[in-house]
Specification:
- The structure is a homodimer of 251-residue chains.
- In chain A, the strands form 4 sheets. Chain A has an 8-stranded mixed sheet, sandwiched between helices. Chain A has a two-stranded antiparallel ribbon with strand order 3-4. Chain A has a two-stranded antiparallel ribbon with strand order 6-7.
- In chain A, strand 3 and strand 4 form a beta hairpin.
- The first copy, chain A, has 8 helices and 14 strands.
- Helices cover 37% and strands 24% of the residues of chain A.
- The interface between A and B is large, with 39 and 39 residues.
Chain lengths: 251, 251
């Protein structure tokens, strides 16, 4: 069983939460893969360089200059610092973008309704055998949220999507974990004691009907079921300091 | 036989010379490894970010902010763009720093005569088996001039040194090529028709005695013979647009 664990940029920006997470990640036994976001670091760097960040519906527009910044920050700074830091914890990490080994291809998202997100990639092809070769040889892939196009340029890609695509490419002996700042899926978003420990397709219908799951959690859970449909055994949504806990989503 | 080819940052900064080089590199048959420098891009980025570049005897002092910049520029931007671009030329490239797979360890250069170069790494340990695993599986490592320390931080390391260490770790079935802006070792630095096609240890003594080889070329050739002493079959010093030509240095 391979564990694919996704960590958001927010956790990595704070030293205490990053160290807590890395300690837990290092302790996960067996083959594993880490997918990381980049978060606000790219925005900060863009500001320092005087490059304007344009957002449409909460999504970053990636022009050429912004693409260079996310390539530097996600593919360079965040990825390589994570890799170096994991080695001191006994994790034989190897940093990757989708371009490395050509393992995750994408196409530039087409312009739709007049909206052009720029150099943003929609994943088209994933070579799970490449990751498997690394994992079988004892390495732990650490994946930055960048893919590439067959025209030879890099593309900015959502880290949740990369995590799902990665897990799917390794199916069926794979579990996927999304770590964030909350305990998991909560009945009451403000009360961590209302954690829902387990969601099946059946119970999800009821949670939706009762309006208990709403807003940004819906696409997260929909994505989880999509991954399960593609052969992933289970998907966990949990706090970054509690990798074995949270909400587990299964068929 | 594995070809280890080192390309300077200067060649990569110019689009025409970069494309010419990449076309030639793609055409090299058999297993191969690319080592790249970063050149002035890091200096330009430091200027844009308002970070002062301090040089001592022509060498960059790498403070914490400068280390972050070279990590972004060498490990992120330059490395990943090269990797993506090589894939469109049919080269199954995979970008690496020394931290990835933990294959090239270094120690922070000790302070000597009061001079502290900061986060600059002297290579201590190279895992050639890691590169060989990638090469045996059909991948082409593309190596950025960054190593890492066992304390978990990255270190800025001279690309020529990385190329020599890489070649040595793959000895004896390995050839090393240094590409730069000149045709090779010249009798008259201003006249490319005076290329010395072949230097042996014997002929080198004579070239030194006659004052034909001097200045910055001496450490280059000394390094070449050091690599040969460590089992590398031959070292070539040549123009980036003529990978089969230039000066060959052999025992």
């Amino acid at each position: 069983m391979i564990q694919v664990i996704k960590i958001g940029g927010g956790i990595l920006e704070n030293e205490a939460s990053r160290e807590m997470f890395l300690r837990q990640f290092a302790a996960v036994e067996g083959p594993k893969v880490l997918v990381h976001g980049g978060g606000r670091l790219a925005t900060t760097m863009a500001e320092r360089l005087g490059v304007k960040t344009q957002m449409i519906d909460g999504r970053r527009v990636t022009d050429k200059e912004t693409l260079d910044i996310v390539t530097m920050v996600y593919g360079g700074l965040v990825n390589k610092q994570l890799v170096a830091s994991l080695h001191t914890r006994g994790v034989n990490a190897i940093g990757l973008t989708g371009a490395d080994g050509g393992w995750m291809k994408a196409v530039k998202r087409p312009i739709k309704n007049g909206i052009d997100y720029g150099f943003v990639g929609d994943v088209t092809q994933v070579n799970g055998a490449f990751l498997r070769m690394l994992v079988d040889n004892g390495y732990v892939p650490v994946i930055a949220p960048l893919t590439y196009s067959q025209e030879g340029f890099l593309l900015n890609t959502n880290a949740d999507t990369i995590a799902s695509s990665t897990a799917t490419s390794l199916a069926p002996e794979v579990q996927l974990t999304f770590c964030f700042e909350k305990a998991g899926v909560l009945r009451d978003a403000d009360d961590e004691s209302t954690l829902i420990p387990r969601i099946t397709r059946e119970s999800y219908k009821q949670l939706l009907a009762d309006g208990i799951v709403s807003g940004g959690m819906i696409p997260k859970i929909d994505n989880a079921f999509a991954a399960i449909e593609h052969g992933v055994q289970s998907v966990r949504i949990t706090h970054a300091n509690n990798l074995q806990g949270g909400t587990i989503i299964i068929e």
